[in-house]
Design brief:
Layout (H helix, E strand, L loop, with lengths): L10 H14 L9 H17 L13 H28 L6 H17 L3 E3 L2 E2 L2 E2 L2 E3 H21 L3 H18 L4 H14 L1 H12 L9 H11 L8 H5 L7 H15 L1 H4 L3 H19 L1 H9 L1 H47 L15 H11 L13 H13 L10 E14 L21 E7 L5 E12 L5 E5 L12 E6 L2 E9 L9 E4 L23 E6 L2 E12 L4 E4 L9 E4 L2 E4 L10 E5 L9 E2 L7 E2 L6 H4 L16 H19 L9
Antiparallel strand pairs: 1-4, 2-3, 5-8, 5-10, 5-11, 5-17, 6-7, 6-9, 7-8, 9-10, 11-14, 12-13, 12-17, 13-14, 15-16, 18-19
Length: about 675
């Protein structure tokens, strides 16, 4: 697939143009190289246009001098394209492929760039059926619509094959990038379904003498599916004679009709003049080359299908070959990652031994080293998912090792709480806030604020826990029901017999609406380590998943766990599903939220190699701990970040672009959010 979608150069483009040409033995035509120059020039236009995001101040306000230079650059690149097309027109160069290159080199990249807004499908059990951008959706609609329209216009021919192999197939390759075997199965399935078409191409290439043996009904059926209309006119029907008529009869009929339709007699009548030219063409074909004409109409269906099937065979063969290359490259990349994991283990790198069922001590490490030491041993490919751990456990069990149960617990959520900081450092009456731990436990708190839209919100709750000192963190149950704007929301604490305290809500890293929970005792499951651990922080870094029945409500990583109170604080607010859901006969915005007492939680590990834990510090930034994972594991020579359309080698460039973009965004936005230490 195309490594650079906007540059107009890719293996698929070369195969689409040069594959059939090489098979025909026609490689010297200048028209073969014209589309690549056209695609390259269009790619320069797209590249220059995308520089818009690098303009200082974009998208809010861009300096006029920078904007003019950017517009001048786009206009110059566009003029090169216009000049190239003008030269093609005067030189009468073959331009039949330029339309497909225009779509794949300019239209599709521009749609993806100019329409970046998210497009999520309706929710099913809390998960969107699709999650992409409107630009990507527009490209898919263009592909499908182009295939349908081109089939109706000219059938399975050049434009149709262009939509299929220059746009649809590279997109399929990108979707199946990390699933090479499924990709091969898909190609083989398509080859099986389309066997009648490429069988004609095989016969035309290797066994042309067998083509005449194909039955006419068979070819007529293929022509109907391919929408291939016979292009040779029926001259016998034009003259109104039988195909068995002799030459004398044909000439006689022509003379009789020509006398009545001659231009000298009919004058400027366009209908009769067109009829005269038609019978003249028919007469010339039947009197000067009747044998060749009779042969051409003897099997028009075969003449129509052979070139189409020939091109289809070449492209399908290339697709199969490229899928095998993809499979080989991905397997090579997997081996590289597995070798990196082996080296990581042998060098005593951090591993979550508890998740894979080994003792979290020197004995567990020795056992894992014993398994990983042979170079030919099988190891999982790390993807940062629970499946990595389960695959590692399966491999260890197959090797005969006794493992402890998988540490996964499931139960009901008892309460959804919310934490706030009482007061900011610049609050005038900050000294009135009591800093004694537990002092405000049982107090009533009211929080009110005005959001950006001008809507006033307020909520009342009870303080069930209070950390005094410099933290001044109050835990509220139930949650107030909305996201609190830190530094702006106002609070009032009251209790009978005590003076009410008012102030501004301070900054706190765990301020999310669905970020603090208390969990109930887990359900019994003998196949799992289902009992809650009494070790403080045992579940730190594990995934916390919430469901309402079968519907996924959200998930997030555990930042802190206190076994005494069964309190869980997440690393960030619960990632709630967004999108549309079917309610009755209409689609409405999803409103899936955790419900205390009925929602269920599941806590489980999903990282074989533990991730570095974020350090929460007071100030304007949230720092991250130094990476503890070996760089050889997390940054193998061939990574899969953004693997584009079938090219492993190009992924390194893609990752470099992502890192540069992140650095640019960080430079433009700067800073972070203030927070307070837990």
């Amino acid at each position: 697939g195309g490594r650079e979608g906007g540059m107009g150069i890719s293996w698929w483009r070369m195969a689409f143009i040069f594959g059939p040409a090489i098979a025909r033995g026609d490689i010297s035509s200048l028209g073969l190289y014209t589309p690549f120059v056209f695609g390259f020039l269009l790619g320069r236009v797209v590249k220059q246009y995308k520089k818009k995001v690098k303009l200082r101040g974009w998208p809010q306000k861009v300096p006029q001098d920078q904007y003019r230079r950017w517009m001048l650059g786009v206009a110059m690149e566009a003029m090169f394209v216009v000049g190239f097309l003008t030269a093609c027109h005067f030189l009468k160069t073959e331009t039949r492929s330029l339309f497909n290159f225009f779509l794949s080199s300019f239209v599709c990249p521009m749609l993806r760039f100019c329409i970046p807004w998210r497009n999520k499908g309706p929710l099913r059990n809390g998960t969107a059926l699709w999650d992409t951008t409107w630009g990507e959706t527009s490209v898919h609609i263009l592909m499908i619509g182009g295939l349908i329209i081109s089939w109706f216009i000219q059938g399975i021919d050049h434009i149709f094959l262009g939509f299929l192999f220059l746009q649809a197939v590279p997109e399929i390759q990108r979707r199946f990038w990390m699933k090479p075997m499924q990709h091969i199965y898909l190609v083989v399935t398509i080859l099986t379904v389309c066997f009648p078409f490429y069988s004609i191409g095989v016969c035309a290439w290797y066994f042309p003498s067998y083509l005449e043996m194909l039955p006419k009904p068979y070819l007529q059926t293929l022509c109907w599916f391919a929408n291939a209309r016979p292009s040779v006119p029926d001259h016998y029907a034009t003259l109104g004679v039988s195909p068995d008529a002799d030459m004398k009869t044909i000439k006689k009929i022509f003379r009789e009709q020509a006398i009545d339709l001659h231009p000298d007699k009919v004058g400027d009548d366009p209908i009769k003049l067109a009829r005269f030219h038609a019978i003249q063409t028919a007469s010339d074909a039947l009197t000067k080359g009747r044998a060749e004409y009779d042969k051409s109409i003897e099997n028009q269906e075969l003449n129509e299908m052979v070139p189409r099937c020939y091109a289809f065979l070449v492209m399908m063969g290339y697709w199969l070959l490229h899928s095998l290359i993809d499979w080989n490259e991905v397997e090579g990349m997997r081996d590289t990652h597995k070798d990196a994991l082996r080296n990581h283990v042998m060098r005593d790198g951090p591993v979550d031994f508890t998740s894979i069922g080994l003792p979290n001590d020197d004995n567990g490490r020795a056992t894992l080293k014993q398994y990983c030491e042979p170079e030919d041993v099988e190891l999982p490919f790390l993807s940062g998912k629970k499946a990595d751990i389960m695959e590692m456990r399966k491999l260890l069990e197959m090797a005969g090792f006794q493992l402890q149960p998988f540490p996964q617990v499931t139960g009901n959520i008892q309460s959804c709480m919310q934490e706030v900081v009482l007061g900011t450092k610049d609050m005038l009456n900050l000294k009135e806030v009591n800093t004694t731990p537990g002092f405000y436990k049982g107090f009533t708190i009211e929080i009110s604020q005005t959001d950006d839209s001008g809507e006033e919100k307020s909520g009342v709750s009870t303080i069930v826990d209070y950390q005094g000192g410099d933290k001044r963190i109050a835990t509220l149950e139930p949650a107030v029901g909305f996201e609190i704007i830190q530094g702006e929301a106002k609070f009032t604490i009251s209790k009978a017999g005590y003076k009410p305290i008012t102030g501004t809500v301070g900054f706190h890293v765990f301020n999310g609406l669905y970020q603090v929970f208390t969990i109930g005792l887990p359900e019994k499951d003998e196949e799992l380590a289902w009992e809650l651990h009494e070790e403080e922080g045992f579940y730190n870094g594990y995934t916390f998943e919430v469901k309402n029945g079968k519907t996924l409500v959200g998930y997030q990583r555990v930042y802190e766990y206190w076994p005494q109170t069964r309190k869980v604080i997440l690393d960030g607010p619960l990632r709630l599903p967004t999108g549309k859901q079917l309610v009755g006969m209409s689609m409405t915005d999803a409103n899936i939220r955790p419900v205390a007492g009925s929602s269920t939680y599941t806590i489980y590990p999903d990282d074989l190699i533990p991730r570095p834990r974020r350090n929460k510090i007071e100030g304007d930034k949230v720092s991250k701990a130094a990476p503890q994972v070996a760089a050889s594991v997390m940054a193998a020579p061939k990574n899969i970040v953004g693997a584009p359309k079938g090219s492993v080698a190009a992924t390194r460039n893609a990752k470099s672009k992502i890192n540069k973009h992140k650095a640019y965004v960080k430079k433009v936005k700067g800073g972070g959010s203030s927070c307070i230490v837990m």
